[in-house]
Amino acid sequence: MIRVLLADDQLLVRAGFRALLDAQPDIEVVGEAADGEEAVASVRELAPDLTLMDIRMPLVDGLAATRRITSDPQLRAVRVVMLTTFELDEYVFEALRSGASGFLVKDTEPDELVRAVRAVVAGDALLSPGVTRRLIEEFAARSKEPTGIEGLAELTEREREVMALVGIGLSNEEIARRLVVSPLTAKTHVSRTMVKLGARDRAQLVVLAYESGLVRPGWLG
Question: Measured between alpha carbons, how far is residue 163 from residues 39, 83, 130, 142, 205 in Å?
């Protein structure tokens, strides 16, 4: 059973998401929060598998709440997906840097929301279906200048190559075709890279790919 926490200051939004998710046989909404402070407290109390977190909330916003959750070693297993009203939200890339596993626009189709919850809990990064690779790069262009990333020197040449391909938005299947290897081999390379860099998930690996300079804005591969 996938345990989900809903954090949004709009009661109707939470009620709609709860009704949809609770109707699934493998998903259970275990709690709700109306602001970031309450969200962090609820995550610590309930330890959900996934938190759907609104970016803009009173008192403590979703970005600050996400940073507090993802920086707590005891909450490392908790995944956070940011909710936003607009796809081009200026805070989306900052949310990924803060440790979010991805984001969704609030008017996402019901079946896409359910698939997203399952995908993130399974370890996949998530970008709203309408968001293209160019959008990733648009936000990446606002990121910091390349910096030294701990663990980068431990990567093999192939792992660096795979990390760069993850950074431009390729799936394991697309990476496999690009490198002429099996999808399982591609997945193994991605997993090993994440372990060496201490990345929580694929979304954080994308951020590290940009911040390390392995991928630069404007390169689509």
Answer: 32, 26, 23, 20, 7
Q: Count other C-beta atoms under 10 Å from residue 21's C-beta.
A: 21
User: How many Å apart are CA 200 and CA 198, to the nearest integer?
Assistant: 6
Tokens of 220: 């689509």
- What is the pTM for the complete model shown? 0.72
Tell me: the pLDDT tens digits for 114-170?
988 998 888 776 654 444 455 555 655 655 555 667 788 899 999 999 998 888 778
Below-50 pLDDT ranges, the chain = 128-132, 219-221
Task: Please state whether beta strands 79-84 and 50-54 pair in parallel, antiparallel, or not at all (unpaired).
Answer: parallel
Q: What are the strands of the beta sheet with 50-54, ordered from one edge?
A: 27-33, 2-7, 50-54, 79-84, 102-105
Q: How far apart are alpha carbons 186 and 181 in whole angstroms? A: 7
Which residues, including other chains, have CB under 8 Å from residue 4's CB and lie 6 or more apart? 21, 27, 28, 29, 30, 48, 49, 50, 51, 52, 117
CA distance 178 to 162: 10
